[in-house]
Recover the amino acids of this structure.
């Protein structure tokens, strides 16, 4: 969402070297398990920024309490990233739904639709893409496209282990296409929501001097800019809700590594998946908010014709994030598509 608003294209990071080693796992005969990420005040995980307490949205507060960190091996046997996600309570679905998020966002983007997907009987995972969300990055790992892709694959390989219905909104659609083409065995179907897939990376932003890049990233975190992006993203919501949702959307920006990770992503070149679109073999559902002010519906129509196996559904009275604005409608579309073996 912010990417399109600021014309940042599909921003990935460069490599800063080093890998985060978790201090919160321990080995046992069964392998690696999570420890030390227990809840803090009001049941929120202790690793979330303290600003979570200021959020009023009950859906965001409830989902925030469910965020966990799972160990994801990214290098040698001792190298793990404690990766944040919302894990399903029951893992029995042969094709679980995996929810990605927009550019510079987090799993809290699914705060309103996630419980509805669970109610429909789906096994749903809401993941934080490497470099965003609430993971413990410690010493910053590379956050470029290849690193994001490999981290997602390792998380899938370690914890999900079944072909998934991969859902990507906005830039998350580019992430989903890139992943589906490179790891087709991991993806059963695709759902792309107001997809931003035609940006050719970060463009000239990749050439910015570091000092200028950091200044721009500081602006990206600023409340006024995030609030303006919210006004563009949603199809008319009350001011009080817009203020609160702005705080939800920028909560991850308070993570200590966020600024470095975002600059790292910016200078690495970004997502450019145009050449991959026709390589997508999976059946795909495109969901479009009819009043999207950030990504033109014409681009969604272009994608519909370029994808080999695609269909489209429109969400009336909705903007760029219909899974937030019209969660019941979007959750039903996802559930019907995921559960229909003939679609």
């Amino acid at each position: 969402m912010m990417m399109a608003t600021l014309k940042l294209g599909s921003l990935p990071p460069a490599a800063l070297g080093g890998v985060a080693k978790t201090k919160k796992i321990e080995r046992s005969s069964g392998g690696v398990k999570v420890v030390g990420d227990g809840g803090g005040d009001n049941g929120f995980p202790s690793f979330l920024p303290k600003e979570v307490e200021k959020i009023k949205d009950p859906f965001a507060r409830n989902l925030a309490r469910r965020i966990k960190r799972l160990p994801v091996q990214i290098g040698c046997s001792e190298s793990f990233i404690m990766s944040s996600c919302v894990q399903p309570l029951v893992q029995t679905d042969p094709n679980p739904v995996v929810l990605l998020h927009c550019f510079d966002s987090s799993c809290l983007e699914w705060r309103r639709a996630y419980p509805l997907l669970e109610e429909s009987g789906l096994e749903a995972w809401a993941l934080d893409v490497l470099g965003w969300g609430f993971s413990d990055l410690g010493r910053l790992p590379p956050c470029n496209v290849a690193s994001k892709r490999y981290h997602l694959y390792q998380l899938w390989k370690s914890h999900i282990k079944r072909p998934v219905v991969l859902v990507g909104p906005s830039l998350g659609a580019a992430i989903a296409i890139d992943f589906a083409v490179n790891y087709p065995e991991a993806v059963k179907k695709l759902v792309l929501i107001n997809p931003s897939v035609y940006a050719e990376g970060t463009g000239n932003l990749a050439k910015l001097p570091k000092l200028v890049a950091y200044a721009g990233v500081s602006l990206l975190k600023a409340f006024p800019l995030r609030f303006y992006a919210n006004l563009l993203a949603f199809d008319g919501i009350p001011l009080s809700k817009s203020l609160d949702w702005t705080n939800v959307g920028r909560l991850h920006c308070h993570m200590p590594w966020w600024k470095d990770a975002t600059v790292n992503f910016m200078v690495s070149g970004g997502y450019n998946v145009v050449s991959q679109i026709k390589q997508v073999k999976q059946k795909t559902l495109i969901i479009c908010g009819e009043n999207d002010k950030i990504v033109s519906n014409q681009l969604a129509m272009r994608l519909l014709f370029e994808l080999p196996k695609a269909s489209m559904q429109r969400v009336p009275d909705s903007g760029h994030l219909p899974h937030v604005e019209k969660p019941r409608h979007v959750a039903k579309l996802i559930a019907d598509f995921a559960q229909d073996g003939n679609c």
In short: Residues 1-38 have pLDDT under 50 and may be disordered. The longest helix spans residues 145-160. The beta strands are 25-28, 31-34, 67-73, 80-86, 97-99, 124-127, 164-169, 187-193, 283-289, 310-315. The CA atoms of residues 315 and 329 lie 7 Å apart.
